[in-house]
């Protein structure tokens, strides 16, 4: 596994050492834990900024997925109760054709997370190798030489070594910082997912199978963070926590400025634009006028029929 991650580890070390060099150049202590923590946060910013195109693609795919929900529900009703092999194959084929036609992907919400996993694993092995550099006498695979690796191995934050985990350490400082970070990581993940479901979804598809899957993920992901967090070194947890905060901020901007049509966030955006005079109120008034004009037309239909009968009565006379 570490050999397969060699290119990723090399890139991680390059970015990590670059930020460490930058912070030491402006006067920060190279051996201090805060310098390494800021370097890890810098690494997070670079990685997440590089993933912005993927995030945009994810948003588009999710919107297409939501737009396709009515058709998916019709398809599910069409094959409801049909459990034979041919029906299942036909349903799967029609679903795939629907996904392809609408440009949607049911796994789109997991895409940024899946792409981050190799980077996350690479960082884990980089920091894991660095913390054992004092005993192995080896540095990293790239720019993280032996001196820098040993510098990280000895770095601590408020008395808690960055190489330690909640499980491996008996020190109160480590357990306290790790415990707080695990709770914040779990809450940030939950809040981000909940924000999407409560404010940026069309109410018409809230009971769809796609939304049921999203509700499961709302509970599942925070539990995964909570369980796995106790075995992560503090250095790795700083990366994951910074990444979660980036996701929260990024998601907030998307929901505020590019909300899903028909969602609560979409209505709130229209209200904000209307207050600023940027929303075309004339278009809304025209729509109302058209609706009001259609109502009298429907009422005049019976009157038209009675007028048509009058000539017929005169002819009889």
Walkthrough of the structure:
By secondary structure, this protein is mostly helical. It has one domain. It contains 13 helices and 2 strands; from the N terminus they run H-H-H-H-H-H-H-H-E-E-H-H-H-H-H. It has helices spanning 6-25, 33-50, 52-67, 69-78, 85-102, 111-131, 133-136, 146-153, 172-199, 209-229, 234-257, 264-276, 281-316, and strands at 156-157, 160-161. Strands 1-2 form a two-stranded antiparallel ribbon. A hairpin with a 2-residue loop joins strand 1 and strand 2. The radius of gyration is 29 Å and the shape is elongated. Residues 281-301 and 304-310 have low confidence and may be disordered.
Give the topology, please.
Layout: H1 6-25, H2 33-50, H3 52-67, H4 69-78, H5 85-102, H6 111-131, H7 133-136, H8 146-153, E1 156-157, E2 160-161, H9 172-199, H10 209-229, H11 234-257, H12 264-276, H13 281-316
Helix pairs in contact: 1-2, 1-6, 2-11, 4-5, 6-8, 6-11, 9-10, 9-11
List keywords for this structure.
mainly alpha; 317 residues; single chain; 13 helices; elongated
Strand order of the largest sheet: 1-2
Number of domains: 1
Strand-residue proportion: under 5%
- Helix coverage percent: over 70%
Net shape: elongated
Number of strands: 2
How many whole angstroms does the radius of gyration measure? 29 Å
Q: Structural class, judged by helices and strands?
A: mainly alpha
Q: Give the SSE order as H and E letters.
A: HHHHHHHHEEHHHHH
Instruction: Give the uncertain stretches in residue-range form.
Output: 281-301, 304-310
Question: Residue-averaged pLDDT, rounded?
Answer: 77
* Distinct helical segment count: 13
- Main β sheet profile: 2 strands, antiparallel
The termini sit apart by: 101 Å
């Amino acid at each position: 596994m570490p050999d397969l991650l060699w290119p990723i580890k090399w890139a991680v070390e390059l970015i990590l050492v670059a930020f460490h060099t930058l912070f030491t150049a402006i006067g920060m202590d190279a051996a201090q834990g805060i310098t390494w923590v800021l370097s890890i946060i810098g690494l997070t910013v670079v990685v997440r900024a590089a993933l912005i195109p993927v995030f945009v693609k994810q948003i588009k795919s999710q919107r297409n997925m939501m737009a396709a929900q009515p058709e998916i529900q019709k398809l599910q009703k069409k094959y409801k109760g049909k459990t034979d092999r041919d029906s299942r194959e036909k349903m799967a084929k029609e679903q795939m054709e629907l996904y392809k036609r609408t440009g949607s992907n049911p796994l789109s919400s997991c895409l940024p997370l899946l792409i981050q996993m190799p980077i996350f694993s690479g960082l884990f092995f980089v920091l894991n190798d660095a913390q054992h550099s004092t005993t192995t006498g080896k540095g990293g695979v790239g720019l993280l030489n032996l001196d820098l690796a040993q510098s990280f191995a000895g770095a601590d934050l408020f008395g808690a070594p960055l190489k330690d985990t909640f499980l491996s350490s008996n020190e109160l400082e480590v357990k306290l910082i790790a415990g707080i970070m695990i709770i914040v990581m779990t809450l940030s993940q939950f809040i981000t997912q909940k924000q999407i479901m409560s404010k940026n979804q069309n109410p018409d598809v809230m009971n769809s199978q796609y939304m049921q899957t999203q509700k499961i993920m709302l509970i599942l992901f925070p539990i995964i963070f909570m369980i796995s967090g106790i075995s992560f070194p503090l250095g790795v947890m700083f990366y994951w926590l910074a990444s979660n905060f980036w996701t929260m901020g990024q998601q907030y901007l998307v929901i505020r400025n590019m909300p899903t049509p028909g969602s609560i966030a979409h209505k709130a955006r229209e209200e904000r634009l209307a207050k600023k005079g940027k929303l075309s109120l004339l278009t809304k008034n025209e729509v109302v006028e058209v609706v009001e004009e259609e109502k009298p037309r429907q009422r005049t239909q019976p009157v038209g029929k009675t007028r048509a009968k009058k000539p017929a009565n005169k002819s009889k006379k």
